[in-house]
Amino acid sequence: MIRPKILMRLIHINWVMMFHGLDEIVLKTHLFRPIRYIAFLSPNYWTSNSREPRGARIRKTLEDLGPIYVKFGQTLSTRKDLLPEDIAEELVKLQDKVPPFSAETARKIIEQQLGQSIEEAFAEFDPQPLASASVAQVHTATLHTGEKVIVKVLRPDIEDKIHSDVGLLYELARLAERFWSDARRLRAMEIVAEFEKTILDELDLVREASNASAIRANFKNSEMLYIPEIHWPLTRRKVLVMERIYGIPVGDIDALRKGNADFKKLAERGVEIFFTQVFRDNFFHADMHPGNIFVQLPDKYLAVDFGIVGSLSSSDQRYLAENFLAFFNHDYRKVAQMHIESGWVPATTRVEEFEAAIRSVCEPIFEKPLKDISFGLLLLRLFQTARRFDMVVQPQLVLLQKTLLNIEGLGRQLYPDLDLWQTAKPFLENWFKERVGPGKKIKELLAKFPEITEQIPEVPGLVFQALQSAAHMQQQLQQQQKDMLELRKQLKRNNTRTLRAILSAAVLIAAAIMMQSPLLGGEWRGCPPRGGAQPTSYMAWGDRQKAIHHIEQRLIGEIYDF
To answer: Which residues are catalytic?
Structure first.
């Protein structure tokens, strides 16, 4: 049963879509299909914005629906190869041109967070936003020390809107898992949980500042990437103050051409930065859409907005690296085996069949320039193949997949002829050598050398203790061997006595039966024979009873002796 709040949100979403002239989408859904003809009676149907281009209508719909939908549009905007050109061009505007909130609201939030007035905090403050995105907007300012900074301010009431939309996503995921078998394989609920964690982390600007500082430290003195410095004294949960940078937006190809940018080097460095963050640092910028990336001519990147970052476990890192290298080397058998060993596909899957399916998807994409390869289509085909083998999607890798798509989008814009495989393969091979080669082991040994030197004086005592323990253990083993030998002898004696007792008991019982039998000694006294004649030979009743009692005592004695 859908909760009333969720139902109202679904109705609101459909109403917004219809308001912006997307009636053809709404009225084709299963919910509204039976009543689609009633829409002709609505005045809004005839006065809607359907005369605007469809790209503009889709963009405005996403803007009105809220931050989560804007995030979705931002991700799609990096994949112009997967969208019609008119829609892709409109979605690009979602990267940093979301309608801003008022300067008065921004001033109020800043002063409330800092506990001081704008004039006390800054020498200059521009009320006109420099950029406005789905979660926050940015103003320029100057500190009293003369430093140029940007001031990032969280949107008002953003938490309530996101919690509401995340609740809707959970409800949709729950319904999908209930009525759609593929949703259970895709682990829709876990993916929504991963998205919830990511988007909620983005609402804490102190966390974002910490992420920026960590990546800045990882790329200190780097020629590839520059991260602006955080101004911590004026950074709060809803306000972030950071060094202002000056660069050309990576999506402004015309400006980059005029500045003689090195497109080939930029494209290669983009791939190298991604793999360095994922495998060397295990901490990567997971929101690399063009609105967050700038270029310092001719070939250096500047990055901002670190609200969404990702990391992987050591096993995930190694697993991904091995998969990438196996793909690059066309070793599809290894890819199939790793999927089965990791539990991503059932253990009953036939390796040969899975290998053939992966080869049919991946082989056609190699030895082609990037402009002829679509990762979107590749992932789509891989998911279709995975469905045949009941492959389980790993939610922790969703951010990585999203970032890889962003990197591909940037590469297409900058240098379509980039060979992604040849750029990434040497990096991964070097990473493996550093990770599992002799050099890595020597580094680990040297890192532990101070600890080892501290324990060297204790080595003789430890050796003496070890020798004593070994001698004591030898004595214990010898004693145990003697005990086992004695136990075997005792068991042998017991077995002999048991056999003798059983044989003696059998003989005595047989003798008792024979003595009581009328066929062997005549009949009992007091029981005259037939015809009145007295027996010529018989055992008296008392003598017979004494013999039986004697046999019983012998039998009991044999049993007790046993």
So the answer is: 287
